[in-house]
Design a protein that fits this description.
The structure holds two protein chains of two kinds.
Chain A: H1 3-7, E1 13-18, H2 22-25, E2 35-39, H3 49-62, E3 69-74, H4 82-92, E4 96-99, H5 105-121, E5 130-135, H6 138-142, H7 144-148, E6 155-160, H8 162-168, H9 181-194, E7 197-200, H10 209-222, E8 226-229, H11 235-242, H12 246-264, E9 270-272, E10 275-277, H13 282-294
Parallel strand pairs in A: 1-2, 1-8, 2-3, 3-4, 4-5, 5-6, 6-7, 7-8
Antiparallel strand pairs in A: 9-10
Chain B: E1 7-10, E2 17-23, E3 28-34, H1 37-54, E4 60-66, H2 71-85
Parallel strand pairs in B: 3-4
Antiparallel strand pairs in B: 1-2, 2-4
Chain lengths: 302, 99
């Protein structure tokens, strides 16, 4: 897959896995998330950081993940762990690295510099390891655009991390997400301006599947590309919400076809089923079709 | 690789193994506790020996409490125990002695 295709690949669900727990690592791909986030950071106790790397390395080398993307979440840059985390991720052939608690473009550049060094050390193709940044503080949100544009050839995009973000904002969780609204919106605007992907935070209450669904629907409507998740039980809902329905696909096809037909006859704006349509509706409709194709549910010929 | 102290890695969770390395004595000795020892004891021992030999560990007693670990897990636990015992905590030879 070309770097461009890899950067833009479908990432509706990104599922966290504790790299220290082999039982989780060995068969997580069977649930078919779009991406696995192999965690060396918060899920791993401080005195097991070393053991987690060995477990990660052997899993990366010996488990066939059948095309599921593998991104490693490394420890933050203010810890003694991140450099070795980068070495093991690159040596093991991870698809990408998620930078925890990323606050500045400089953070991204520092990580990329070490990735380059590791790619050389371990004989991996230069530029093959992608990066993404987790934004977890107000400073990170303020710097979101600079972070998104710090390394265009490797940057997948940004994800907001609710736990630390709420803490640093002195905010509390609310079901409607009012405390996250500004952070989510600002990050989205930066990501879209930079042309990179944008992912929402985890939802931690596994007993509240209805609340989870509401949040997934909300972030899909806001324009997010996907969501970080913590359990295989959350995958189906995310995929269901982020995959266009038959009706949405047919509607999108109809918009694209009709606008083209009308344009060929010299007509710009017109109405279809009582709704105004013009060329401005085409990119949105095309995105629905692209998403349907990427999700493997498209059967049309556009 | 020179082991400086005894060290342990792994857990007693399902699909994991707990490996303890005690430096000293003559050669590599492996002691295994596992409910699947009858079927897999030999494979477990071979994996532990091979991993230790690749790391250049000569004289050691390896105590393995296996809870149904895959080979790649067992190998990871032996490796991390060995580096802990050698008191090495960075610059690991990924892709070299750790294959």
């Amino acid at each position: 897959m070309s770097i461009d295709k890899r950067l833009k690949r479908l990432r509706r669900s990104m599922m966290f896995l504790n790299a220290q727990r082999p039982g989780l690592l060995k068969d997580a791909y069977v649930y078919r998330p779009d991406c696995l986030l192999l965690d060396l950071e918060d899920a791993v106790a401080e005195n097991q950081k070393d053991a987690a790397r060995f477990s990660l390395y052997n899993a990366l080398k010996s488990v066939d993940y059948r095309g599921v993307e593998r991104i490693v979440r490394i420890n933050a840059l203010d810890t003694p762990h991140w450099q070795e985390d980068i070495r093991v991720s690159v040596a093991g052939g991870a698809d990408g690295i998620r930078i925890a608690k990323c606050e500045t473009a400089e953070d991204v550049k520092t990580v990329v510099k070490h990735i380059e060094k590791a790619e050389e050390e371990f004989g991996r193709e230069l530029g093959s390891t992608l990066v993404m940044a987790a934004l977890e503080s107000p400073l990170a949100i303020i710097n979101a655009y600079a972070i998104c544009t710090a390394c265009p050839r490797r940057m997948i995009g940004v994800a907001i991390s609710g736990g630390d973000y709420r803490k640093s904002m002195q905010a509390e969780f609310s079901p409607d997400g009012i405390e996250m609204a500004a952070g989510r919106s600002n990050m989205l605007i930066a990501a879209r301006a930079a042309g990179v992907q944008c992912f929402d935070t985890v939802f931690t209450d596994l007993d509240d599947m209805e609340g989870f669904r509401r949040e997934v629907i909300m972030v899909k409507k806001m324009g997010f590309d996907g969501k970080s998740i913590i359990s295989p039980r959350q995958i189906a809902i995310v995929h269901e919400v982020f995959t266009p329905t038959d009706r949405e696909i047919r509607e999108a096809e109809r918009i694209v076809r009709t606008v083209r037909e009308q344009a060929a006859q010299g007509i710009g704006v017109f109405t279809l089923d009582g709704k105004m349509l013009d060329i401005a509706f085409v990119p949105g409709a095309e995105r629905v079709i692209e998403l349907a194709k990427a999700s493997g549910v498209y059967e049309g010929d556009l | 690789m020179q082991l400086r102290k005894s060290a342990m890695s792994g857990t007693l969770e399902s699909s994991d193994a707990m490996v303890t390395l005690e430096p000293g004595g003559e050669g590599i000795r492996v002691e295994i506790t596992s409910i699947v020892k009858a079927q897999y004891g030999r494979q477990i021992e071979a994996c532990v020996r091979e991993t230790l030999e690749r790391l250049g560990v000569d004289n050691v007693k390896a105590i393995v409490v296996d809870k149904g670990a895959l080979e790649c897990t067992l190998k990871a636990r032996v490796e991390s125990a060995a580096f802990r015992a050698a008191e090495i905590d960075s610059g690991f030879p990924w892709g070299g002695a750790i294959k």
